[in-house]
Design brief:
Elements (H helix, E strand, L loop, with lengths): L26 H9 L4 H27 L13 H4 L7 H13 L7 H19 L6 H21 L7 H27 L6 H22 L16 H26 L4 H15 L3 H15 L8 H27 L2 H9 L4 H16 L1 H14 L11 H11 L6 H33 L6
Helix pairs in contact: 4-16, 5-6, 6-8, 7-8, 9-10, 9-12, 9-15, 10-12, 11-12, 12-14, 12-15, 13-14, 15-17, 16-17
Protein backbone atom coordinates (compact mmCIF):
# COMPACT_ATOMS: atom_id res chain seq x y z
CA UNK A 1 0.00 0.00 0.00
CA UNK A 2 0.96 3.57 -0.52
CA UNK A 3 2.64 5.14 2.49
CA UNK A 4 3.71 1.88 4.13
CA UNK A 5 7.41 1.23 4.79
CA UNK A 6 8.93 -1.43 2.66
CA UNK A 7 10.18 -4.44 4.66
CA UNK A 8 13.74 -5.29 3.73
CA UNK A 9 14.75 -9.00 3.99
CA UNK A 10 17.58 -9.78 6.40
CA UNK A 11 19.84 -12.81 6.14
CA UNK A 12 22.46 -13.45 8.86
CA UNK A 13 25.85 -14.06 7.35
CA UNK A 14 27.55 -15.41 10.49
CA UNK A 15 26.53 -17.40 13.55
CA UNK A 16 25.36 -15.47 16.58
CA UNK A 17 27.77 -15.75 19.52
CA UNK A 18 26.89 -18.43 22.09
CA UNK A 19 25.70 -16.81 25.28
CA UNK A 20 26.52 -18.45 28.62
CA UNK A 21 23.55 -19.76 30.64
CA UNK A 22 22.28 -17.54 33.43
CA UNK A 23 24.48 -17.96 36.53
CA UNK A 24 21.42 -18.85 38.61
CA UNK A 25 20.75 -22.03 36.58
CA UNK A 26 24.15 -23.74 36.64
CA UNK A 27 26.53 -25.05 39.26
CA UNK A 28 25.69 -25.47 42.90
CA UNK A 29 23.45 -22.42 42.86
CA UNK A 30 21.40 -23.78 39.98
CA UNK A 31 21.12 -27.20 41.63
CA UNK A 32 19.93 -25.64 44.88
CA UNK A 33 17.36 -23.45 43.09
CA UNK A 34 16.03 -26.47 41.17
CA UNK A 35 15.99 -29.00 44.00
CA UNK A 36 15.86 -27.15 47.31
CA UNK A 37 14.27 -23.74 46.69
CA UNK A 38 12.11 -24.32 43.62
CA UNK A 39 8.96 -23.03 45.37
CA UNK A 40 7.91 -21.86 48.83
CA UNK A 41 6.96 -25.35 50.05
CA UNK A 42 10.36 -26.82 49.16
CA UNK A 43 12.04 -23.77 50.68
CA UNK A 44 10.27 -24.31 54.03
CA UNK A 45 11.04 -28.04 54.00
CA UNK A 46 14.68 -27.34 53.17
CA UNK A 47 15.04 -24.86 56.02
CA UNK A 48 13.37 -27.23 58.48
CA UNK A 49 15.61 -30.06 57.30
CA UNK A 50 18.73 -27.94 57.68
CA UNK A 51 17.67 -27.02 61.21
CA UNK A 52 17.15 -30.68 62.12
CA UNK A 53 20.53 -31.60 60.62
CA UNK A 54 22.16 -28.80 62.63
CA UNK A 55 20.58 -30.00 65.88
CA UNK A 56 21.56 -33.63 65.17
CA UNK A 57 25.17 -32.87 64.19
CA UNK A 58 25.60 -30.48 67.10
CA UNK A 59 24.28 -33.07 69.57
CA UNK A 60 26.45 -35.85 68.16
CA UNK A 61 29.55 -33.66 68.16
CA UNK A 62 28.88 -32.52 71.70
CA UNK A 63 28.42 -36.08 72.96
CA UNK A 64 31.02 -37.93 70.87
CA UNK A 65 33.83 -35.36 70.84
CA UNK A 66 33.43 -32.22 72.92
CA UNK A 67 32.38 -33.88 76.22
CA UNK A 68 34.02 -37.24 75.45
CA UNK A 69 36.68 -38.86 77.60
CA UNK A 70 39.46 -40.53 75.65
CA UNK A 71 41.82 -41.89 78.28
CA UNK A 72 41.41 -43.51 81.67
CA UNK A 73 42.04 -46.63 83.70
CA UNK A 74 38.59 -47.18 85.23
CA UNK A 75 35.13 -45.67 85.62
CA UNK A 76 36.47 -42.68 87.53
CA UNK A 77 37.53 -41.17 84.22
CA UNK A 78 33.90 -41.15 83.07
CA UNK A 79 32.07 -40.05 86.24
CA UNK A 80 30.80 -36.48 86.37
CA UNK A 81 31.74 -36.02 90.03
CA UNK A 82 35.33 -37.04 89.25
CA UNK A 83 35.96 -34.98 86.11
CA UNK A 84 33.79 -32.00 86.99
CA UNK A 85 31.56 -31.89 83.88
CA UNK A 86 28.77 -33.98 82.32
CA UNK A 87 30.58 -36.75 80.48
CA UNK A 88 29.54 -37.65 76.96
CA UNK A 89 31.09 -40.67 75.30
CA UNK A 90 33.48 -42.75 77.40
CA UNK A 91 35.90 -43.81 74.68
CA UNK A 92 38.39 -44.73 77.40
CA UNK A 93 36.22 -47.81 78.05
CA UNK A 94 36.38 -48.83 74.38
CA UNK A 95 40.14 -48.27 74.31
CA UNK A 96 40.65 -50.38 77.45
CA UNK A 97 38.41 -53.24 76.29
CA UNK A 98 39.14 -53.16 72.56
CA UNK A 99 41.15 -56.39 72.56
CA UNK A 100 38.26 -58.23 74.23
CA UNK A 101 35.84 -56.78 71.69
CA UNK A 102 37.95 -58.34 68.92
CA UNK A 103 39.20 -61.61 70.44
CA UNK A 104 36.93 -62.31 73.40
CA UNK A 105 38.79 -64.45 75.95
CA UNK A 106 41.09 -65.94 73.33
CA UNK A 107 44.53 -66.55 74.98
CA UNK A 108 46.75 -63.52 74.56
CA UNK A 109 49.83 -65.49 73.48
CA UNK A 110 47.81 -67.26 70.75
CA UNK A 111 46.11 -64.22 69.23
CA UNK A 112 48.63 -64.16 66.40
CA UNK A 113 46.64 -67.04 64.92
CA UNK A 114 43.51 -64.90 64.83
CA UNK A 115 45.47 -62.03 63.29
CA UNK A 116 46.81 -64.27 60.52
CA UNK A 117 43.29 -65.56 59.83
CA UNK A 118 41.90 -62.03 59.64
CA UNK A 119 44.76 -60.85 57.43
CA UNK A 120 44.60 -63.74 54.95
CA UNK A 121 40.81 -63.52 54.80
CA UNK A 122 40.85 -59.77 54.17
CA UNK A 123 43.53 -60.01 51.48
CA UNK A 124 41.78 -62.90 49.76
CA UNK A 125 38.40 -61.17 49.81
CA UNK A 126 39.88 -57.94 48.46
CA UNK A 127 41.72 -59.89 45.75
CA UNK A 128 38.49 -61.52 44.60
CA UNK A 129 36.39 -58.35 44.42
CA UNK A 130 38.98 -56.00 42.88
CA UNK A 131 39.04 -56.27 39.11
CA UNK A 132 42.12 -56.58 36.89
CA UNK A 133 44.15 -58.42 39.53
CA UNK A 134 45.97 -61.54 38.29
CA UNK A 135 45.07 -65.09 39.35
CA UNK A 136 41.63 -64.10 40.67
CA UNK A 137 40.21 -67.53 39.84
CA UNK A 138 42.96 -69.32 41.77
CA UNK A 139 42.49 -66.98 44.69
CA UNK A 140 38.76 -67.77 44.61
CA UNK A 141 39.53 -71.49 44.71
CA UNK A 142 41.90 -70.91 47.62
CA UNK A 143 39.30 -68.90 49.55
CA UNK A 144 36.56 -71.47 48.89
CA UNK A 145 38.49 -74.69 49.52
CA UNK A 146 41.74 -74.01 51.39
CA UNK A 147 41.07 -70.97 53.56
CA UNK A 148 38.20 -72.56 55.59
CA UNK A 149 40.46 -75.49 56.55
CA UNK A 150 43.36 -73.16 57.32
CA UNK A 151 41.15 -70.93 59.47
CA UNK A 152 39.70 -73.94 61.31
CA UNK A 153 43.15 -75.31 62.14
CA UNK A 154 44.59 -71.93 63.10
CA UNK A 155 41.69 -70.86 65.30
CA UNK A 156 41.15 -74.19 67.06
CA UNK A 157 44.63 -75.71 66.89
CA UNK A 158 43.47 -78.88 65.12
CA UNK A 159 44.07 -82.34 66.63
CA UNK A 160 40.37 -82.92 67.38
CA UNK A 161 40.89 -86.66 67.96
CA UNK A 162 37.65 -87.53 66.24
CA UNK A 163 35.85 -90.60 67.52
CA UNK A 164 34.96 -93.55 65.35
CA UNK A 165 31.33 -92.49 65.65
CA UNK A 166 32.03 -89.26 63.77
CA UNK A 167 33.59 -91.16 60.87
CA UNK A 168 30.63 -93.56 60.87
CA UNK A 169 28.14 -90.68 60.70
CA UNK A 170 30.00 -89.07 57.78
CA UNK A 171 30.22 -92.41 55.96
CA UNK A 172 26.51 -93.05 56.49
CA UNK A 173 25.63 -89.60 55.12
CA UNK A 174 27.83 -90.18 52.07
CA UNK A 175 26.22 -93.54 51.31
CA UNK A 176 22.73 -92.10 51.84
CA UNK A 177 23.51 -89.22 49.45
CA UNK A 178 24.69 -91.56 46.68
CA UNK A 179 21.72 -93.88 47.14
CA UNK A 180 19.35 -90.91 47.07
CA UNK A 181 20.85 -89.58 43.83
CA UNK A 182 20.64 -93.03 42.26
CA UNK A 183 16.97 -93.43 43.24
CA UNK A 184 16.08 -90.00 41.89
CA UNK A 185 17.94 -90.74 38.65
CA UNK A 186 16.18 -94.07 38.12
CA UNK A 187 12.76 -92.53 38.74
CA UNK A 188 13.53 -89.65 36.40
CA UNK A 189 14.60 -91.95 33.58
CA UNK A 190 11.55 -94.16 34.11
CA UNK A 191 9.41 -91.08 33.40
CA UNK A 192 11.39 -90.15 30.31
CA UNK A 193 13.27 -87.27 31.94
CA UNK A 194 16.87 -86.79 30.78
CA UNK A 195 19.06 -87.35 33.86
CA UNK A 196 22.85 -87.02 33.73
CA UNK A 197 24.12 -89.58 36.26
CA UNK A 198 27.78 -88.60 35.90
CA UNK A 199 27.16 -84.95 36.77
CA UNK A 200 24.64 -85.72 39.51
CA UNK A 201 26.98 -88.21 41.22
CA UNK A 202 30.02 -85.99 40.79
CA UNK A 203 28.61 -83.28 43.09
CA UNK A 204 28.11 -85.44 46.24
CA UNK A 205 31.35 -87.30 45.45
CA UNK A 206 33.33 -84.05 45.45
CA UNK A 207 31.58 -82.78 48.58
CA UNK A 208 32.16 -85.91 50.65
CA UNK A 209 35.72 -86.35 49.38
CA UNK A 210 36.41 -82.82 50.57
CA UNK A 211 34.74 -83.55 53.94
CA UNK A 212 36.80 -86.73 54.43
CA UNK A 213 39.94 -84.72 53.65
CA UNK A 214 38.88 -82.08 56.19
CA UNK A 215 38.24 -84.75 58.82
CA UNK A 216 41.71 -86.17 58.19
CA UNK A 217 43.42 -82.77 58.53
CA UNK A 218 41.62 -81.66 61.69
CA UNK A 219 42.49 -85.03 63.27
CA UNK A 220 46.20 -84.37 62.65
CA UNK A 221 48.45 -82.82 65.31
CA UNK A 222 50.04 -79.60 64.01
CA UNK A 223 51.68 -78.75 67.31
CA UNK A 224 49.33 -75.85 68.02
CA UNK A 225 47.70 -75.29 71.38
CA UNK A 226 44.04 -76.25 71.30
CA UNK A 227 41.77 -73.26 72.01
CA UNK A 228 38.22 -74.23 72.92
CA UNK A 229 35.43 -72.28 71.29
CA UNK A 230 33.96 -71.08 74.64
CA UNK A 231 37.05 -68.86 74.83
CA UNK A 232 36.22 -67.24 71.50
CA UNK A 233 34.27 -64.02 71.48
CA UNK A 234 33.78 -60.55 70.13
CA UNK A 235 34.29 -59.74 66.47
CA UNK A 236 35.89 -63.16 65.95
CA UNK A 237 32.65 -65.01 66.71
CA UNK A 238 30.57 -62.49 64.75
CA UNK A 239 32.67 -62.94 61.61
CA UNK A 240 32.92 -66.73 61.95
CA UNK A 241 29.15 -67.14 62.28
CA UNK A 242 28.28 -64.55 59.62
CA UNK A 243 30.81 -65.66 56.99
CA UNK A 244 30.07 -69.36 57.48
CA UNK A 245 26.34 -68.72 57.19
CA UNK A 246 26.77 -66.51 54.13
CA UNK A 247 29.12 -68.86 52.29
CA UNK A 248 27.11 -72.00 53.07
CA UNK A 249 23.62 -70.58 52.55
CA UNK A 250 24.08 -69.47 48.93
CA UNK A 251 24.91 -72.85 47.30
CA UNK A 252 22.45 -74.71 49.54
CA UNK A 253 19.78 -72.12 48.76
CA UNK A 254 20.41 -72.46 45.02
CA UNK A 255 20.02 -76.25 45.20
CA UNK A 256 16.82 -75.90 47.24
CA UNK A 257 15.40 -73.37 44.77
CA UNK A 258 16.13 -75.70 41.87
CA UNK A 259 14.65 -78.59 43.82
CA UNK A 260 11.46 -76.67 44.54
CA UNK A 261 10.99 -76.05 40.81
CA UNK A 262 11.91 -79.60 39.86
CA UNK A 263 9.51 -81.77 37.88
CA UNK A 264 10.31 -84.77 40.11
CA UNK A 265 7.74 -84.95 42.93
CA UNK A 266 10.14 -86.46 45.50
CA UNK A 267 12.76 -83.73 45.05
CA UNK A 268 10.16 -80.97 44.91
CA UNK A 269 8.33 -82.18 48.02
CA UNK A 270 11.57 -82.61 50.01
CA UNK A 271 12.67 -79.09 49.07
CA UNK A 272 9.30 -77.59 49.96
CA UNK A 273 9.22 -79.33 53.34
CA UNK A 274 12.76 -78.21 54.15
CA UNK A 275 12.16 -74.58 53.13
CA UNK A 276 8.80 -74.20 54.85
CA UNK A 277 10.03 -75.89 58.03
CA UNK A 278 13.05 -73.63 58.47
CA UNK A 279 11.14 -70.51 57.46
CA UNK A 280 8.39 -71.36 59.92
CA UNK A 281 10.53 -71.18 63.06
CA UNK A 282 12.45 -68.19 64.46
CA UNK A 283 16.23 -68.22 64.52
CA UNK A 284 16.24 -68.12 68.33
CA UNK A 285 14.41 -71.46 68.37
CA UNK A 286 16.85 -72.90 65.84
CA UNK A 287 19.84 -71.87 67.93
CA UNK A 288 18.29 -73.20 71.12
CA UNK A 289 17.36 -76.53 69.55
CA UNK A 290 20.79 -76.94 67.92
CA UNK A 291 22.49 -76.26 71.25
CA UNK A 292 20.26 -78.24 73.59
CA UNK A 293 18.19 -80.79 71.66
CA UNK A 294 20.48 -81.88 68.81
CA UNK A 295 22.91 -83.83 71.05
CA UNK A 296 19.99 -85.96 72.23
CA UNK A 297 19.46 -87.32 68.70
CA UNK A 298 23.11 -88.15 68.00
CA UNK A 299 24.57 -91.65 68.51
CA UNK A 300 26.40 -92.35 71.73
CA UNK A 301 29.96 -91.05 71.63
CA UNK A 302 29.20 -88.49 68.92
CA UNK A 303 29.18 -84.89 70.05
CA UNK A 304 29.63 -81.64 68.17
CA UNK A 305 31.02 -78.43 69.51
CA UNK A 306 28.43 -75.81 70.49
CA UNK A 307 29.77 -73.32 67.96
CA UNK A 308 29.67 -75.95 65.21
CA UNK A 309 26.05 -76.76 66.02
CA UNK A 310 25.30 -73.04 65.90
CA UNK A 311 26.98 -72.72 62.49
CA UNK A 312 24.97 -75.62 61.08
CA UNK A 313 21.70 -74.17 62.39
CA UNK A 314 22.43 -70.68 61.05
CA UNK A 315 23.49 -72.02 57.65
CA UNK A 316 20.35 -74.15 57.20
CA UNK A 317 18.08 -71.36 58.46
CA UNK A 318 19.59 -68.81 56.10
CA UNK A 319 19.59 -71.28 53.19
CA UNK A 320 15.80 -71.58 53.40
CA UNK A 321 15.39 -67.82 52.96
CA UNK A 322 18.05 -67.74 50.26
CA UNK A 323 16.17 -70.44 48.36
CA UNK A 324 13.09 -68.24 48.07
CA UNK A 325 15.17 -65.29 46.89
CA UNK A 326 16.79 -67.41 44.18
CA UNK A 327 13.43 -68.93 43.23
CA UNK A 328 12.11 -65.43 42.60
CA UNK A 329 14.97 -64.86 40.16
CA UNK A 330 14.32 -68.18 38.41
CA UNK A 331 10.66 -67.29 37.95
CA UNK A 332 11.63 -63.94 36.44
CA UNK A 333 13.53 -65.60 33.58
CA UNK A 334 11.40 -65.78 30.42
CA UNK A 335 10.32 -69.21 29.27
CA UNK A 336 12.10 -68.63 25.97
CA UNK A 337 15.46 -68.87 27.73
CA UNK A 338 14.66 -72.39 28.87
CA UNK A 339 13.31 -73.37 25.47
CA UNK A 340 16.35 -71.93 23.69
CA UNK A 341 18.73 -73.86 25.95
CA UNK A 342 16.81 -77.10 25.41
CA UNK A 343 16.74 -76.46 21.65
CA UNK A 344 20.55 -76.34 21.76
CA UNK A 345 20.53 -79.81 23.33
CA UNK A 346 21.96 -78.69 26.66
CA UNK A 347 21.33 -81.08 29.57
CA UNK A 348 19.62 -79.78 32.70
CA UNK A 349 22.67 -78.85 34.74
CA UNK A 350 24.43 -77.10 31.86
CA UNK A 351 21.24 -75.23 31.00
CA UNK A 352 20.97 -74.01 34.59
CA UNK A 353 24.67 -73.32 35.09
CA UNK A 354 25.32 -71.57 31.78
CA UNK A 355 22.02 -69.97 30.77
CA UNK A 356 19.43 -69.63 33.53
CA UNK A 357 21.23 -69.22 36.86
CA UNK A 358 23.60 -66.42 35.76
CA UNK A 359 20.63 -64.34 34.69
CA UNK A 360 18.52 -65.23 37.72
CA UNK A 361 21.26 -64.46 40.26
CA UNK A 362 21.98 -61.16 38.55
CA UNK A 363 18.36 -60.11 38.93
CA UNK A 364 18.18 -60.93 42.64
CA UNK A 365 21.48 -59.40 43.78
CA UNK A 366 19.60 -56.93 46.06
CA UNK A 367 17.65 -59.76 47.68
CA UNK A 368 20.76 -61.91 48.15
CA UNK A 369 22.74 -59.10 49.77
CA UNK A 370 19.74 -58.14 51.87
CA UNK A 371 19.67 -61.71 53.22
CA UNK A 372 23.41 -61.51 53.91
CA UNK A 373 23.00 -58.25 55.81
CA UNK A 374 20.12 -59.65 57.85
CA UNK A 375 22.19 -62.74 58.69
CA UNK A 376 25.14 -60.60 59.76
CA UNK A 377 22.96 -58.67 62.19
CA UNK A 378 21.25 -61.84 63.43
CA UNK A 379 24.58 -63.13 64.73
CA UNK A 380 23.83 -61.21 67.93
CA UNK A 381 21.28 -63.92 68.80
CA UNK A 382 24.03 -66.45 69.56
CA UNK A 383 24.24 -64.86 73.00
CA UNK A 384 21.25 -66.95 74.13
CA UNK A 385 23.29 -70.16 73.80
CA UNK A 386 26.31 -68.81 75.65
CA UNK A 387 28.40 -67.55 72.70
CA UNK A 388 29.60 -63.97 73.11
CA UNK A 389 29.71 -62.17 69.78
CA UNK A 390 30.66 -58.51 69.43
CA UNK A 391 27.46 -57.19 70.98
CA UNK A 392 27.44 -59.93 73.61
CA UNK A 393 31.01 -59.26 74.78
CA UNK A 394 30.27 -55.52 74.95
CA UNK A 395 27.13 -56.15 76.98
CA UNK A 396 29.08 -58.49 79.27
CA UNK A 397 31.73 -55.84 79.95
CA UNK A 398 29.13 -53.10 80.37
CA UNK A 399 27.00 -54.96 82.91
CA UNK A 400 29.40 -57.32 84.67
CA UNK A 401 32.63 -55.34 85.01
CA UNK A 402 32.27 -53.20 88.14
CA UNK A 403 35.55 -51.49 87.34
CA UNK A 404 33.88 -49.68 84.44
CA UNK A 405 30.42 -49.15 85.87
CA UNK A 406 29.31 -45.66 84.79
CA UNK A 407 26.21 -44.25 83.07
CA UNK A 408 28.11 -43.10 79.99
CA UNK A 409 29.81 -46.48 79.53
CA UNK A 410 26.54 -48.21 78.56
CA UNK A 411 25.76 -45.77 75.75
CA UNK A 412 29.31 -45.72 74.47
CA UNK A 413 29.56 -49.51 74.28
CA UNK A 414 26.34 -49.90 72.35
CA UNK A 415 27.19 -47.00 70.02
CA UNK A 416 30.53 -48.65 69.28
CA UNK A 417 28.74 -51.93 68.46
CA UNK A 418 26.33 -50.08 66.19
CA UNK A 419 29.18 -48.36 64.34
CA UNK A 420 30.99 -51.67 63.84
CA UNK A 421 27.88 -53.41 62.47
CA UNK A 422 27.09 -50.42 60.25
CA UNK A 423 30.56 -50.47 58.68
CA UNK A 424 30.24 -54.12 57.62
CA UNK A 425 26.61 -53.85 56.48
CA UNK A 426 27.19 -50.59 54.59
CA UNK A 427 30.20 -52.14 52.85
CA UNK A 428 28.08 -55.07 51.65
CA UNK A 429 25.36 -52.70 50.50
CA UNK A 430 27.72 -50.51 48.48
CA UNK A 431 29.38 -53.51 46.85
CA UNK A 432 25.92 -54.81 45.95
CA UNK A 433 25.13 -51.53 44.20
CA UNK A 434 28.46 -51.70 42.36
CA UNK A 435 27.71 -55.22 41.13
CA UNK A 436 24.23 -54.21 40.00
CA UNK A 437 25.57 -51.31 37.96
CA UNK A 438 28.29 -53.49 36.49
CA UNK A 439 26.10 -56.45 35.50
CA UNK A 440 22.89 -54.80 34.35
CA UNK A 441 22.33 -55.25 30.62
CA UNK A 442 19.54 -52.84 29.86
CA UNK A 443 16.85 -54.11 32.24
CA UNK A 444 17.15 -50.96 34.37
CA UNK A 445 15.06 -47.96 33.45
Amino acid sequence: MAGEAKIQPYVRTEMAPTMPPPPSTVGIVGWMRANLFSDWINTILTLVGLYLVYITVDTIYDWAFYRAVWTGEDNKACLEKEVGFPVGACWAFVNAKFSQFVYGRYPFEERWRVDITFLVGAIGLAWMIIENLPYRKWVSVFMAAVFPIMALILLTGGNFELSSGSWKVLSFLAIAAFVGVAIVGVRAQSKGVDFDFSTALMIPAAIFAYLFFVFFLVDFDFGLRHVETPLWGGLLVTLVVAITGIVASLPIGILLALGRRSSMPVVRMASVIFIEFWRGVPLITVLFMSSVMLPLFLPEGVNFDKLLRCLIGVALFSAAYMAEVVRGGLQAIPKGQYEGAMALGLPYWKMMGLIVLPQALKLVIPGIVNTFIGLFKDTTLVLIIGLFDLLGIIQLNVTADAKWFAPSVHNTGYVFAGIAFWIFCFGMSRYSIYMENKLHTGHKR
